[in-house]
């Protein structure tokens, strides 16, 4: 199996709406955590007295590629400051995490796995030649401790053992020493086997377990893809089998699996944690690079263009811990929580609703999507995720102008200094494909060959049809290509500034409740859908001016509140019979509709 490889931020540059989105992130919470949040600003990783485990590595995993993609010198300087402090604290034996020698046996080495991945990302962005040696010492020490029995995997490290393979593969390309695959074998031997856990995924319980934790599962999907080569094993596509169980028993219209914060079934009012969105995207990026199977790229787009933007405020200063498919309000529950194992504030927009892990970890999602735009094998370039951007190497420059997924037209400007092939992935839902105006078949990819000294343009377009997708309990969602559409609910924001447990929420990094102010008790009255496209503004997934909308007809139905709650709709309506006249409304992209109804019945006609 021949894998596709990723380019570096020095070779890839975002353009168009994607650069706008990355800039919003840099100007929002993701680019400013080191200024406003104690767990990053005062972390033990840099000599402070705040958290010294996963939060700084999580943050750097997104902050570093964001800084280099935007070529932001101040952010690059900040990233180097943190990396320098982490490297400077490495012990002679290679240990690098901020704890005393006496604490090491009780220190969950998930942090070792995570910081090794982050250092790999930093090297790919910066080219800092200190990093290979730092990683060598770090992971050789990890191997020694595990092989001698001084430490063992437990809790998070046990359930995320495969994360270490990002750095192990990096090292093995450079050193080819036997201890590297042996460390991989030790990690797998002591790590959790998720194929044995699937029975627990089929009937979610109101019980917190590592086996059903949604972020563990989102990370796990890539485990075989990242580990099989180093372990000398054949790839068996285990991810597809596991994905099938997860989707059937816990799937959502936007490709997520419910998890608030453990697997939560098929109800549209259960939530999914933001960390899972970011990690599931990363798993799909690596799965596509490993397999070349376009199903993973299409699943990636479904997450990136719907679930990801839905869980942030437009300015990305606030985020949710969990999002819901049918979300009519984001207000603190006055009594018990609706969620299986999350608290009553997990769906609010804010600095760190419920837990701060998502505050630290969300930053990787948009930058790593940008780094997945173009992949390569030898002299072949693959346009994998058709977002606007430019690839520039010594041999070629390929610039893609597009507003996809809001529009379906693509202009490639190709300048070849050496011969190469360009392959363009075409999604399964594309219809009436045209290349420079001429019809083309959808065979999954378009293939172009270029000689040296070529300067040309290729125009590609295709149509996408609106479809309704059946959901459980007689509900339906509306989908058009990689975009899912929802009935938007107007809302008012209620801002909350306060300090709790030493963490200050102060504008713009404060908390918000979203209070719904418009009707939501609708069913679809027929299958007529009219698409309208609008200019893409400064906020690509704007909540008040979406780049694309769909007009359709709806009618009021009998849809009450969930028993015991006044800000949560029932799992499904009492009846799909119409209660009023037909109304024409505009559906918004799921990622633009912060309050929304996504799973809705089709009206039943009275006899």
Q: Residue share in helices?
A: 25-40%
> How much is the radius of gyration in Å?
24 Å
Count all strands and give the number.
Answer: 26
Q: Give the terminus-to-terminus CA distance.
A: 58 Å
Mean pLDDT: 97
Strand portion:
15-25%
Number of helices: 18
Largest sheet: 8 strands, antiparallel
Name the structural class. Answer: alpha+beta
Regions with pLDDT < 50 over 5+ consecutive residues?
Answer: none
* Rough outline: globular
Describe this structure in words.
- This protein has 607 residues and is of the alpha+beta class.
- It contains 18 helices and 26 strands.
- The strands form six sheets. Strands 15, 16, 17, 22, 23, 24, 25 and 26 form an eight-stranded antiparallel beta sheet that branches. A seven-stranded antiparallel beta sheet has the order 2-7-8-9-14-11-12.
- A hairpin with a 6-residue loop joins strand 8 and strand 9.
- Helix 6 runs antiparallel to helix 7 (131-148), helix 6 packs across helix 9 (165-175) and helix 7 (131-148) packs across helix 10.
